[in-house]
Each structure stands twice: as structure tokens, then as C-alpha cells.
Design goal:
The model has no long low-confidence stretch (mean pLDDT 94). The protein is an alpha/beta fold. The protein contains 13 helices and 13 strands. α3 runs antiparallel to α10, α5 packs across α9 and α11 packs parallel to α13. It has a 7-stranded mixed beta sheet with strand order 2-8-7-6-5-3-4, with helices on both faces. The chain has a 4-stranded antiparallel beta sheet with strand order 9-10-13-12. A hairpin with a 7-residue loop joins β9 and β10. It has 2 domains: 150 residues, Aspartate Aminotransferase, domain 1, CATH 3.90.1150.10; 223 residues, Aspartate Aminotransferase, domain 2, CATH 3.40.640.10.
Length: 401
């Protein structure tokens, strides 16, 4: 029997593929500081749980395929409040941001289509684009350049007859880069000039640490027909398990085709949608407190990381990730060694190897760190990383620590 070539071209998630090794390490009695997954330990607002506890409908019915009106309307209000003019017709509720992306790529890509994405990028983009028949054409960046990419001369030469879209994650996963308004304008102008979709994965919008106003590609009215926004409650409200996201666009033709897919998968979970809608009643004080907590975590992680000899890292401006180049030969091998061979007082650390965030051949000695643990745990995790690097260089690479 045959297996699809599309799926054979996909890889396991670098964030999740070490799960069996994590389980074995725990069975050996090791405490593991997990920096591989973007799973916050911030408490989900109680409004979510209260809504679930108070759900008393005698029949748990299908939700409408586009989404429950209440859920759609609170998302519309959220965007209107940040200067994005959308209506309920411009929103389809999805099973997390992941389904929104899968629907979108199915709608806009044919065999051989290309999507321009700055690398390093969220690895699951590759799986979603590949299974839709397309491929990623990377916009090259580097840790030495701070992973910045919004330069016309860097992007336009990559555009050809197969290019369908430019995709940006703002703030960035895995780099933490936050685009300036001028940089967003550069990308908007390119998309308009070449009649391309511009996909804004904006699930980390609330997590910016320099006092910048909340930004969205939807604020550029001159390209509103080009813009598609991906959103989710997962990170904004620390509700990853709810699996409620949204596909947002004023492009009526695109949304009419996306509705076919929404109807084919029937609906998003009813109770989760209602509970997710309740989250949008959180006020600005909630986001202020969460931002301040993540800023403390970012600073702790970055400062400790910079104490490790040979590490290259740009201080992230947003989201809750950072990419770092380590003085090791292979971050994938190093990660496995940390879980299987290393411990310090029965403790170790796990991260996401960087090569999976590139199209191929790059990032071999890079890692992505998710600074989603409390300050004390992050400090200890960075200490373990420092000790681990020194021992790995000596014991495995045969070098001075």
C-alpha cells in the first residue's frame, strides 16, 4: 500500500518529537524543565471555567459551521476596538489557529504554489503547506541580524509566477521579532504590487514588551482584500486546550470557499466556543499583568542565557520565545543527550532544536526556548543549559568547556 508523497515530505514537530524521551527521563526520576512547548503556566481566566460549569442546555447540539454568533461577535468587537473594520461575515471560527491555517492553505494553494515566509518559522507551517500541495520559499534571516526581514530588496526577488502569499507571524514565533509600522507597510506594499495574499498569524499580538500599540495587518485598509488574519484564544488567554481560533478576511470570495471546508468538518465544539467567548470580557488590566509577567520571564531567560560562553541570541521584543545559537555541533543530538545522558542533581532541561524551524540545512546548532515557566524555574533551566553545554562539549565533542 502507498503513502502520500505530500505527507512523506513532512517531518515530526521539533517541539513534540522528544516526548517519548521526556517520559523515559521522568521514569528515571529526573525533573525536567520543559522549554520546548509554548504551553504557558499562566492561569486561564476563571470566566472560561464558570461558563462551562453553567452550561445547562438539555441537548449538546452542533454549533453553526461558521461559528456561534456570540463567539463571532466578541471577536468582531475586539478587532473593531484596535482599528480593524470587520463584520461577522468576515469571521469563521476554527478548531484553533491550526485549522484556520489548514483551511486557508487548502483554499489558496495548488500543486507547486509557494508561500514566502521568513525563516526560522513555526515548523507546523511546513506540514500544512505541504499537505495543501505547496511549499515554503524562505525569506532568509540570521541571529546576527536580529532575524529582521521586512526589506523590499530581500523579499521581491523571491516572487515568481508560483507565489501566492507572504506570511508573517507578528510578534514572531520562534524569534520574538515585532514588526514596526514601517516594516508592516513595506510588506503591505509588496503584497499589493504583486497581487498576493498577506497572511498575518497574529495569535501573540497582546505580548509586546516595548509599549507598542497593538498592531494588525488588518489595519491597512488599502490592502484589505489581500489580508487574511489567523487568530486564537490559545496564547492570548492561556487557553491552549480550548482549541478555538478564527480565520478572518474581508475577501468574500476566499471566505465563501473556506465555508465549504467549515461545513465539511461540521463545527467547532459548542461548549468551548461559548467559554472562549467569555474570555473576551477580560479587561486591559488582565493583559497588562500578563505582559509584565512575561517581560520578567523574558529578561530572566535572556540575561542568564547571555552568561553562557559562545551563545548568540537577540533579545526578543514580543511573544514568549527566543532563538539562540549554541556552541554545540548539533542541537538535536544535544537535546537527546540532555534527556538520556545528563542530569544535575536529578534535573535536566529540554528545548526545541532549531533545524526544524528552517527549510533545510540551517539552524543545526540553534534552539528555540519557550520562556513559559516562572522566573525561578527559568533561572534554574538556564543554569542546567550552561552546565549541560560545558559537559557536552567536553564529553561528546572532545573540546574544552
Amino acid at each position: 500500500m502507498k503513502i502520500s508523497k505530500k505527507i512523506q515530505e513532512c517531518s515530526l514537530s521539533p517541539m513534540r518529537k522528544f516526548y517519548p524521551s521526556v517520559l523515559k527521563a521522568r521514569e528515571m526520576g529526573k525533573k525536567i524543565y520543559c522549554l520546548n512547548l509554548g504551553q504557558p503556566d499562566i492561569k486561564t481566566p476563571v470566566k472560561f471555567h464558570e461558563t462551562i460549569r453553567n452550561f445547562e442546555n438539555p441537548v449538546l447540539e452542533y454549533a453553526p459551521s461558521p461559528g456561534i454568533p456570540k463567539t463571532i461577535n466578541v471577536i468582531v468587537d475586539y478587532y473593531n476596538n484596535i482599528g480593524v473594520d470587520i463584520t461577522s461575515d468576515d469571521v469563521i471560527i476554527t478548531t484553533g489557529g491550526s485549522e484556520a491555517l489548514s483551511m486557508l492553505f487548502t483554499c489558496i494553494l495548488d500543486e507547486g504554489s509557494e508561500v514566502l515566509i521568513p525563516e526560522p518559522f513555526y515548523p507546523n507551517y511546513n506540514t500544512m503547506i505541504r499537505t495543501a500541495g505547496g511549499r515554503i520559499k524562505p525569506i532568509s534571516t540570521s541571529p546576527e541580524e536580529g532575524y529582521r526581514y521586512a526589506v523590499k530588496e530581500k523579499i521581491e526577488p523571491l516572487i515568481n509566477e508560483n507565489t501566492r502569499a507572504i506570511m508573517v507571524t507578528n510578534p514572531g514565533n520562534p524569534t520574538g521579532v515585532v514588526l514596526t509600522k514601517d516594516e508592516m507597510q513595506v510588506i503591505a506594499d509588496i503584497a499589493k504590487a504583486h497581487d498576493l495574499y498577506i497572511i498575518g498569524d497574529e495569535v501573540y499580538r497582546e505580548f509586546v514588551y516595548g509599549g507598542e500599540p497593538l498592531a494588525s495587518m488588518g489595519q491597512f485598509k488599502e490592502i484589505e482584500q489581500n489580508v487574511v488574519i489567523i487568530d486564537s484564544v490559545s496564547k492570548r488567554f492561556s487557553a491552549c486546550g480550548a482549541r478555538v481560533g478564527a480565520l478572518i478576511s474581508k475577501n468574500k470570495e476566499l471566505m465563501s470557499h473556506a465555508l465549504k471546508l467549515a461545513q465539511a468538518r461540521l463545527s467547532v465544539a459548542t461548549v468551548d466556543q461559548l467559554a472562549a467567548a467569555a474570555l473576551y470580557s477580560c479587561d486591559d488590566e488582565y493583559f497588562k499583568e500578563v505582559r509584565e509577567e512575561y517581560k520578567i520571564r523574558r529578561d530572566t531567560c535572556y540575561e542568564k542565557l547571555m552568561e553562557i560562553p559562545g551563545v548568540i541570541c537577540e533579545k526578543p521584543q514580543g511573544a514568549f520565545y527566543m532563538m539562540a545559537a549554541l556552541p554545540v555541533d548539533n542541537a538535536d543530538n544535544f537535546n537527546r543527550w540532555l534527556l538520556e545522558e545528563f542530569d544535575d542533581n536529578h534535573e535536566t532541561v529540554v528545548f526545541a532544536p532549531g533545524s526544524g524551524f528552517y527549510t533545510g540545512g540551517k539552524g543545526v546548532n540553534e534552539i528555540r526556548i519557550a520562556y513559559v515557566l516562572k522566573k525561578e524555574d527559568l533561572a534554574r533551566a538556564m543554569e542546567l543549559l550552561k552546565i549541560g553545554i560545558a559537559r557536552y562539549r567536553k564529553e561528546v565533542m572532545g573540546l574544552d568547556a
